[in-house]
């Protein structure tokens, strides 16, 4: 599963996320992390598809929250075309990512 890396926190060397659980109560969830993929973090254990992960806010486990759903950010910029000018004056267009 991929999640926004901003949602991941660490405490004494252990990674965790906060999720919105039953009755909108904040729950602490230890997670195992993998690599970054296109700006998002791979979570190999600890979170299930469909769970609501808290990205920001001053919350603690056990608190009741009023969650607001936000779209998952996409860190991969769109492909853009750049024109490269060679030393001999010829130009060439290539698709690049910034």
TrEMBL record:
Composition bias, Basic and acidic residues: 87-98
Q: Which GO terms describe its biological process?
A: response to antibiotic
One of its Pfam families is RND-MFP_C
What are the residue boundaries of the Multidrug resistance protein MdtA-like C-terminal permuted SH3 domain, all occurrences included? 7-58
Which GO cellular component terms are attached? plasma membrane
Where in this protein does the record put region Disordered?
74-98
What is the designated name of this protein? Acriflavin resistance protein A
Species assigned in the record: Salmonella enterica subsp. enterica serovar Alachua str. R6-377
